[in-house]
Amino acid sequence: MKEYSLYINGRFEKAALSREIINPSSGEAIARVSMADAGTVDYAIRSAREAYDKGPWRNFSLDKRRDLILELSEKLLGKARELAEVESLNSGKPIKETTFMDIPSSAQTFRHFAENLKFYLEPETIEIKSQAGRAKADLIHGGRGVVGLIVPWNYPLLIASWKMAQALSAGNTVVLKPSTSTPLSALELAEIVDELDFPKGVVNIITGKGDEAGKTICTNKYVDMVSFTGSNEVGKRIMGYASESIKKLIMELGGKSASIVLEDSDLDLAVNGSLCSIFLNQGQMCTATSRILVSDKIYDEFRDKFTQRAKSIKLGQAMDFQTQMGPLMSEAQRRRVLSFIDKARREGLKILCGGKIPESPALKKGFFFEPTVIEGKGAESFLFREEIFGPVAVIDKFSGIGEAVSLANDSDFALAGCIWSKDKDKAANLAKDICAGTVWINTYGMFFNELSYGGFKQSGFGKELGKQGFLEYTSLKNVITDQTQNGKSLVNYWYGF
Question: Is 425 left (phi over 0), alpha (psi -120 to 50) or beta?
């Protein structure tokens, strides 16, 4: 069983406490990781602070910074097979997903921001003419300083790569804290970083409990920014911690996304796309469209096709390339999902398929749960409002566009949504009325490094990815130079003698 250490100030450090990491497919321990206490986290933060304030990192040319991050991207690809296996063993993601989605996408994120950092950081000049005189303003983006990156368990390496690629490309130093449940790919990333010529303290990767390690990152006055992805409950605590020493926050929180299936949609495309939108990664996605709203004119046909295909999804061990849906991340997560199913039964909702632990002996030891489809009862149902974070789809009907919009927007969350229609103009107009940070038309889950991502309402604030997301990780400075012609600026005469 491999043992992982903390990575602080360019060195691997063992902690006094450690934790076993469990394989969700088998329930067995697969690794042991060191757990940082508050003092160790403080050491990591001080190392990052020193590296930003006094180290060579801030004096690296943009070309040198770019080349180093590009090298990190290449190293990630060089270990793609190993990383895919680690990610599947640790998180329960099917190996097909980690091989073809998570690991290549992680590497590409580093590449994209390295190749575009000059463009994103390019200064802007504004010429100003006013009664007070003329001036030239240079708007200059630079690093914020020390950035704390707190990453969830559902996309351990990919979300860590999103945050780290942007933070480093912008010129910051980082303290990355992965989830204590799924830290292995981030700790493998530390081994890659150690092979490269990053100055000491620029990258620090630690594991530790949220109420100790995470709290220390958020309260420490030497941390300039915290980028967090996770639950609303934890997000609210982080906002409270961060208020102790005012700092920039990005908060990507929960979701209860809606999928709207119009009567003119390509039915097979809508069914297959909706399956992906809720059962990919076992439904453990903030963007999961767990509310599927279908035109009453095609509702019965859609419901029956969707349910039949959900029944055929192949559950299996994460390391099997034939597996379409793996286990939930933990026994605690499975109990949470089961509690929602119990409430649905008490409420009298109709469970069309699933809703239970599979009986197959081959899946007995893991944290598996069947793909579940439930017929909804409108917005009054608790299933319509609460984020389950599991493979549970609720299907409901609407009778017109107005009702579809009303149902879709009747949520405390506003992260993402889908629209299915052959009429792209109609879908585009409908998308304008949907309150969500991302709306997909005739597809689901297309994330591009060039496009920003983030939600509204209880789904949080701030953006990741794209130029807008990148600039979240920068500070903006205005350098104003007087350009008054044939004289001196007005300020010269205010107290002039």
Answer: alpha
Pair (359, 473) in one structural domain = no
252 in active site: yes
For the question of whether the overall pTM of this predicted structure is more than 0.90, the answer is: yes
Query: How many structural domains compose the chain?
Result: 2
Domain check: are 121 and 233 in the same one?
A: yes
Whether 450 maps to a domain, the answer reads no
Which of these is catalytic: 286, 353, 418, 435? Answer: 286
Distance CA(337)–CA(351), nearest Å, equals: 14
CATH number, domain containing residue 130: 3.40.605.10
Report residue 257 as tokens: 């996304």
Closest CA to 222 of 171, 147, 149: 147
Domain residues for the domain of 92 are 2-253+459-479
C-alpha 139/C-alpha 123 separation (Å) is 5
Q: For residue 441, what are the β-bridge partners?
A: 419
- Exposed, middle or buried by CB within 10 Å (0-12, 13-18, 19+), for 153? buried
Answer yes or no: 286 catalytic: yes
Could you tell me which residues come within 8 angstroms of residue 90 by beta carbon, excluding any fewer than 6 positions away?
A: 21, 23, 30, 31, 156, 182, 183, 184, 185
The CA-CA-CA angle for residues 72, 80, 61, to 5°, reads 10
Nearest one of 302, 291, 256 to 376, comparing CA atoms: 291
Q: Is residue 393 part of a domain?
A: yes
Is 60 within 8 Å of 46 (Cβ atoms)? no
* pLDDT of 212 over the 70 cut: yes
pLDDT digits (tens, 9 = 90+) for 93-149: 999 999 999 999 999 999 999 999 999 999 999 999 987 788 999 999 999 999 999
DSSP state letter for 209: -
Three-state DSSP at 479 gives strand
Which candidate in 188, 252, 370, 472 is catalytic?
A: 252
Answer for the pair 491, 480: CB distance below 8 angstroms, yes or no: no
> How distant is the alpha carbon of residue 483 from its chain centre?
45
How far is C-alpha 449 from the geometric centre of its chain's CA atoms?
Answer: 13
Tokens 């052959």 correspond to what residue? 422
Q: Is residue 446 part of a domain?
A: no
Please report, for the domain that includes residue 408, its CATH number: 3.40.309.10
Q: Any idea what DSSP says for residue 448?
A: -
Say if residue 398 is in the same domain as residue 299: yes
